[in-house]
UniProtKB/TrEMBL annotation, chains A, B:
One of its GO terms (biological process) is tyrosyl-tRNA aminoacylation. This is Tyrosine--tRNA ligase. PROSITE patterns: S4 (PS50889). Keywords: Aminoacyl-tRNA synthetase, ATP-binding, Cytoplasm, Ligase, Nucleotide-binding, Protein biosynthesis, RNA-binding. Residues 359-424 form the Tyrosine--tRNA ligase SYY-like C-terminal domain. It comes from the Bacteria. One of its GO terms (molecular function) is tyrosine-tRNA ligase activity. PANTHER family: TYROSINE--TRNA LIGASE, TYROSYL-TRNA SYNTHETASE. Catalyzes the attachment of tyrosine to tRNA(Tyr) in a two-step reaction: tyrosine is first activated by ATP to form Tyr-AMP and then transferred to the acceptor end of tRNA(Tyr).
Amino acid sequence: MADEKTDKLPVNVTNLTSQIKSVVNSESPIMAQDFSWLHRGIVEVFPQPTDINSEIESLEKRLANSNRPLRVKLGIDPTGADIHFGHSIPVRKLRAFQDAGHTAVLIIGDFTARIGDPTGKSEVRRQLTQADVAQNAQTYLDQVRPILDFDTPGRLEVRYNSEWLSQLNLGKILELLSTMTVGQMLAKEGFAERYKKENPIFLHEFLYPLMQGYDSVAVEADVELGGTDQKFNIAVGRDLQRHFGQTPQFGLLLPILIGTDGVQKMSKSLGNYVGLSEHPGQKYQKLQGVPDNLLAQYFELLTDLPLDKLPENPRDRQMLLAWEVVKQYHGEQAANEAKEAAKSGGKEGAVPEFSLAEIPHFPAKLAFILNATGLCKSTGEGRRKIQEGGVRLDGDRITDVDITYQEPSELYGRVLQVGKNKFVRLVP
Amino acid sequence: MADEKTDKLPVNVTNLTSQIKSVVNSESPIMAQDFSWLHRGIVEVFPQPTDINSEIESLEKRLANSNRPLRVKLGIDPTGADIHFGHSIPVRKLRAFQDAGHTAVLIIGDFTARIGDPTGKSEVRRQLTQADVAQNAQTYLDQVRPILDFDTPGRLEVRYNSEWLSQLNLGKILELLSTMTVGQMLAKEGFAERYKKENPIFLHEFLYPLMQGYDSVAVEADVELGGTDQKFNIAVGRDLQRHFGQTPQFGLLLPILIGTDGVQKMSKSLGNYVGLSEHPGQKYQKLQGVPDNLLAQYFELLTDLPLDKLPENPRDRQMLLAWEVVKQYHGEQAANEAKEAAKSGGKEGAVPEFSLAEIPHFPAKLAFILNATGLCKSTGEGRRKIQEGGVRLDGDRITDVDITYQEPSELYGRVLQVGKNKFVRLVP
C-alpha cells in the first residue's frame, strides 16, 4: 500500500526533495518540518526548482519560511447544488492547509454563473439568478462544513468573484487579454483538439481562463488547488499575478476521483457517486462496496488514516473505509449505527421508514406528505421548507412548492429529507 | 476616361443595377433618382442582392425609400494630428451623403487611443492623454472642415467612442466575444498570415474589430464607410447589429489613394503625400506634378468634375486638378494666386518669405521668431500658440514651447505656420 502510494507520487516530487536537500542547510526548519500532510494524495506541485532554474523557491520552502499565513485558493462553481466525494478532494487538502495555520480562500464563481453562456448554446452554462447562486453557494457551504474549519478566526475567507469581475472595464479586460497569445490559448487541452477538428471555439471562451486567473490576482493567492484539469488555468493565474506585480501562486494538482464503479470519474450523471448530503446509511452502503482496486486511492484521498496500517482483509478494509468516512461527516455514533444497520442486512441502513398507507388520500401535495411523515410540524412549514430549498427526494432538492403526487407508488422506496439530519424512507 | 472609370467599378455594381431593374417597377423613385454621387469612385457596396438571395435590400433602394435621413458612419483614429488627401477620400464620400440629405456620424476613436497598446510593444498604439486626444480630434475637425457640411442642422454628428466603450462591463464584453469564433477571426486578413507564420497574435487584438463593430451598434449606423482594408471590421459591425436586433449597416468601400510618386499608397512616412493643412501653394505645387497614370483616379476621387469633359492635354489636366483641389480647400482666389505663383516659376508658390537675417541674435527661441516674423504679435502670443498646438514647421506641429534654434541655417527653406492661414518661408 505504502509502495503503491510512492509509485503514484510524481517523479518530480522526489526530485524536489533531493533539490531541497542540496540547496538548504540540513538544520533548516524546512527539513525539520513534516510535509506529509501536503504530499499526501497529490499529483503535482508546480513550479518546482529544477537543475536549470534552481533559484525557484519550492512550496515547502515558502510554507516553512513565510511569516504570515499563506492564502490558499479554491474556486467553486455554484451552478449545481449537490456535491459528491469527488468534489471533496481539494476541499480536504484545503483543510490540511488550514490545520497547518494557513487561510483557505473559497471563491464562489458567481459572476460566470450569473452570466451563463452568452451563446445560449450550453445547457451546462445556463444563466442563474442571484437568488439561485446564493442558494447554491449556501448549499455548497453546508455540505463542506464537516470538512473545513469554519470556526478558527482567520482560517476561512469566502469570496464571490462578482466582487471584482463586475468592476472590470474594457481597458482592464484588454490588458488581461494582452498577456496571452492566440497560440498559447489554443495550446490549452480542449481548445487544441477542437481547433484541430474545426469545431467552433467562441472567442469569449478565451476569457474564462483569464477570469479564473484574475481571481488569483484579486485575492492575492499564494497557492491554488485544483484537479489535474486545472493546470492551464492555474498557470494563467501565475502569469497574471506576475503581470500585476505579485509573487505568482503555486499550483497544487489533485487527482480526479474514480467513482464507485471503479472505472469512470465520479459523476452524478453516471450514478457512480457518493453525495456529501446523502444519509449516513446511504454513504456507508455505497462505500462498503467500493471495489478493491479503488480502496488504496479512497483511503489516501478521503481519510487521514496511515496507509501502512490498514487491515489485510479486503472486506475489513471496505468496512473501515465506510465507517471512517461516515464518522468524518456525521460523527462516531452515526457511523456505528450505519455499520450496525448494514450488518443487520437492511440494505437501506438507518433510515426510518414511513408507510404511505397512513396518508388518507392521493393525489397528495408534498407539503402535506412532509407533515404526515412528521418531518415538518404542519403543511405550512412543509411549504416553507420547500421554498427555502431544504427539502430533498433521493438527494435531489425539490423547489416546486405545489408539487403533487398522483399515486403512492410514485414514492415507494424513495428517501425524503428535510435539512441535513431528518430522513424517512417512503414505503407502501 | 469615362471608360476607365466604368472598368474600375466592381462588376457586382453592374449586376446590382440589373437586379434592381428586375425587382422594382420602372416608375419607382429608385430608377428616377440619380445615384452617380454614390457610385463615383467606390470599390464595393455590400451586401448586394444576388441571384441566390434576391430579397436583400440594396443600398440604393434603402436610400430611395427611407423616410428618415440615413446615419452614415466614419471612424477616425485620433492618434495622429495631420491628415492627407488619402484620408480625405471617405470624408468626401461622407459629404456626398450629407448633400443627399443624410447624417454624417464621425466617430472619434478616443477610447482605443487613450488605452494605447496594452502590450506596450507597439509604437503606433502608444497611450495618449485625454488632452492629446482632444487636441488631435480638434485638429482633425479643423482639417476636414472645408470638406464636410458643418452648418446644416442634422447633417453632422461627432461622437467619441469612449462614451459607450468605457461603459462596457465584462458581461457585455463576453457577449460581444461570443458572437464570433476563433476560426472566423483568424480568417481576417493580417491575422491569417501572422498565425500561419507563427508570429504572435495577442488575444486583445481580437477585441478591436468587435469594438469598432460595437460603435456601429452604439450609433445605429445604416452605412459605414471605409477603405478596402475595412471590409472585415465593417462586416463584424453588421453581425453585432444583427445580434442586438438592429438592421445591419451597409458597407461602402473606397480605394486606397496612391501617393504623388504614382507607385505607393499615400503616406506621410513615404513623403509622397499632400497634407490637408499644407499651404495652398504647396498643395498646388505637389498636385500639378501628379504623374499621368494617377490623374484619372485623382480627378475621380478628389474632385466632382465630370470625368468625360477633362482637357486632352496632360499638362492642362494636371493644372486643372491642382487648381480645382486648391479651390475646394482655400477658395478660388487662393487657387488663382497659387497658379500664378507656380507659373512665375517660384517653386515655393505663394508663401511669403521672411529673412532670418532680421533676427538680431541666435540661439533664438521659436516663440521669439514667431513674433519677429509677424506671425504673432508678441513672444507671449507665440508661446501661447505653441501651447495650443497651433504652430507648425513644414506641416509638423511643434509642441515644445521652449524649443530653441542655435543657428539660422537650421531653418533655411522651412515653412513656419500659425493656425490655418498664416505662413512664412524662412530664408537666409
